[in-house]
Amino acid sequence: MTDSLTTTPRLGAGTTGLALSVLVASIGTSAANVALPTIAAELDGTFAQAQWVALAYLLAMTATSLAVGHLGDLIGRRRVLLLGIGVFTIAAALSAVAPTLWMLIGTRALQGIGAAVMMALPLARARDMVPPERLGRVMGLLGTTAAVGTASGPALGGLLITVAGWPAIFAAMVPLGLIAAALVGTTGADEGQTGGPRRGFDLPGMILLTVAVALYTLAVTSPGDQASWPTLPLLGGAVVAAGLFAMRERRTSHPLLAPVLLRNRTVSLGAILNLIVGTVMMSTLVVGPFFLAGALHLPPAAIGAVMAAGPIASICTGVLAGRTVDRFGTRLMTAIGLSGMLLGALALALLPDWWGLPGYITGTVLLAPGYQLFLAANNTAVLNSTPVDRRGAASGLLGLSRNLGLVTGASVLAALFAAASGTPEVAAASPDALTAALRTTFLITAVLLAAAVLLSLAPTRTRSIESAGDATGEPPATTR
To answer: pTM of the prediction?
Structure first.
């Protein structure tokens, strides 16, 4: 294995393929949202029904993240990644020609399954290809491409709608998917189960986890009139399904989520931190537009430009963050990244009240580099500490925790912001009430991030990790 990412054509092309996979899946997450009003009008649906075009993608991607990672461990991560890109690309083509709204929703759900593969397995595949001391910069590259995809998706979608109509959004993903598949195909043989008995696939566990995640996602991402959505029964069902899943995983000989993986403090802590950070990062997307429109009276175009400041800062700092992780180590950089995010959250809580728009932009720009540093360090730590035959499951767990954080932030922080505004309808709140609500929301996120910093600095119990590895015949994982 070479020390550089670019000294061989195969490694350079393979890394580009992994980055392109993440980029295309990220575009798929955000580009379709701007088309929802047009889709509703042209396919004779309501706006609430059209929201399922976005929700089906998010739900399928979240619910299957862990399962596809585990499948990669069983039959080969390169093989499953290529299969996922194929599913995503075929579903994109079908979405472009969908004659009805409900068929489009179905193809988007299928596309979300492919996206789960394309977001999770590049992390594990990168660890297969790249030595540990160089992994941080690849994680920084993947984080940068995710930020590019999320940031450029709405603008790209709006342009394609204007030029060629909403089907062009999905049609444009087809050639990108084909290029990604061609490049990933150059990454060489799979590195997975190479000896010993092969594990089976835990189908009952996958069904239970999918049901739990789907019910939770539905509970907190209700389209249309939330008052008519059975949130509490859905949450109750999610808890029951999650409990049954945990019981299943303790008893089966081939678990979807091996208990030994969770006993590895680096992996379990990485998932918890990912959940917290995902929740916090969603706050700028769900709270920011209301504050910018209602308190600062910005027009939609200006809101879009301001909202792009954070992703642009992420794009500019992602690769540098990865190189920093390689040089200074994961534990220190995780804590520094979270501390940078904490500073950004405090700035968002306080500066807009003092400086207005410059204060808000300052907060979002401060938040982004800390996020990229955390992402590169946390992903590197988890993948470097995971045995080779569990890397797919570990990357799937990171994807699951991130997506659960995003949907939790979209629901909980939006509800917190609305409650803090003191009015039944946020759009009718006064500028002062919206500023106070922004302050409350980001002070809460600052508390969450402070807790995350303390967790990241807690001592590592090396002995228990080694014992877990010995008990299963797996090599002991390195500590964080």
So the answer is: 0.84
pLDDT tens string 293-322: 888 988 877 887 887 788 888 888 888 898
Q: What's the whole-number mean pLDDT along residues 372-381? A: 92
| All residues at 6 or more sequence positions from 161 whose CB lies less than 8 Å from its CB, including other chains | 34, 35, 38, 168, 169
Domain 258-470 superfamily per CATH: MFS general substrate transporter like domains (1.20.1250.20)
User: What DSSP assignment string belongs to 148-201?
Assistant: HHHHHHHHHHHHHHHHH-THHHHHTHHHHHHHHHHHHTTS-S--S--SSPPPPP
* Distances 78 to 72, 83, 118, 375 between C-alpha atoms, Å: 8, 9, 11, 23
- Where does residue 82 rank: exposed (0-12), middle (13-18), buried (19+ CB within 10 A)? buried
Sorted by where each begins, the domain ranges of the chain are 1-187, 258-470
Q: What top-level class would CATH report for the domain 1-187?
A: mainly alpha
* Cα–Cα distance for residue pair 401/119, rounded to 1 Å: 12
Q: Report whether 479 contacts 460 (CB < 8 A).
A: yes
Total Cβ atoms within 10 A of residue 94: 17
Q: Give the residue-averaged pLDDT of 358-363.
A: 93
Each residue's pLDDT tens digit, 88-128? 999 999 999 988 889 999 999 999 999 999 988 888 888 88
> How is residue 25 written in tokens?
């899946």
Cα separation, 15 vs 395, whole angstroms: 16
Alpha-carbon distance of 428 to 261, in angstroms, equals: 48
Mean pLDDT of 369-398: 88
Asked whether this chain's domains 1-187 and 258-470 adopt the same fold, the reply is yes
Q: Quick one: 420 exposed, middle or buried, by C-beta within 10 A (0-12, 13-18, 19+)?
A: buried
Q: Give the C-alpha distances (Å, rounded to integers) separating 323 from 5, 320, 329, 376, 389.
A: 12, 5, 10, 9, 26
Measured CA distances, 334 to 275, 324, 328, 380 (Å): 14, 11, 10, 10
